[in-house]
Amino acid sequence: MNEQQHDLLNKYEEALRKTLTERLTEGKWLEGRLLEVEELNEKWHAAAPSYMADAVPEIAKYPLVAIAWAMYEGMAAATLWDKEWSRYEGVEDIHKMLTEPRGFDCMDEYITEILLALPLGSQEAERIEDMIRSTAETAQMLIRKEGIEAQSVMAFHIFARTTKVMFEAGVAVQLRRLGYNYVKVNAEVVS
C-alpha cells in the first residue's frame, strides 16, 4: 500500500468516526465523543482477523450485517469490561468467544439477549437494533461515497477500517448506557 492510499484510509476513518459520533449524539446515544477503553481496542485488534473471516463472505448478500455486527461486538466487549473483565481480559479472540454459542449469523441475538440482558423483541432491544442498523447504513453510505472498486484490496481495507470504527462506536454507546462519561478534572499543580 502506498502513502497516498494510507492517507486516504486515515482520512476516511476519521471522517467515518466524526460522522458516526455526530449521528449517535443527535440520537442521544452519545454526548459528542466516543468513550474509549484502550484494552478493548486491543481486543478488537486481536479479534479483527477472525471477524473479517466471518464478515467478508457476508458482504455480497448482507452488507449491513457484515458492518453492523462489529458494533454489537463493541457493545458486548464494553459489557464484559464493566461486569467482570478479570474473567475475560485473557481471552485472546473475543470474536470467537461471542460467536461460539450461536454462530456469526445470530451473534446479534446472543449479545442482546445474554450479554445486554434484553429480551428479544423488547422495546429497548428494538431501539438498539434500529440504532445499530441506522449506524451501519450511514457507514455503508460513506463507503460507497469513496468510490472504491468492489472486491479490491482497497475495498478490503476500507471495510476493515469501517468495522474498527463500528466496534469503537459500540463500545462508546454501551459505556454511556452503563453510565460512564468523561468528566473534566481540574488538576492543580502543588509546588
What is the element layout, followed by pairings?
Layout lengths: L2 H24 L11 H18 L7 H26 L5 H6 L7 H9 L7 H23 L7 H25 L14
Helix pairs in contact: 1-6, 1-7, 2-3, 2-7, 3-5, 3-6, 3-7, 6-7
Short description:
This protein has 191 residues and is mainly α. It is built from 7 helices and no strands.
- How many structural domains are formed by the residues? 1
- Range of strand content: under 5%
Report the C-alpha radius of gyration, rounded. 17 Å
Describe the largest sheet. Answer: none
What's the tally of helices?
7
User: Strand pairing plus helix content: what structural class?
Assistant: mainly alpha
Q: How many strand units?
A: 0
Gross morphology is globular
Distance between the termini: 50 Å
Instruction: Provide the helix percentage.
Output: 55-70%
Order of helices and strands: HHHHHHH
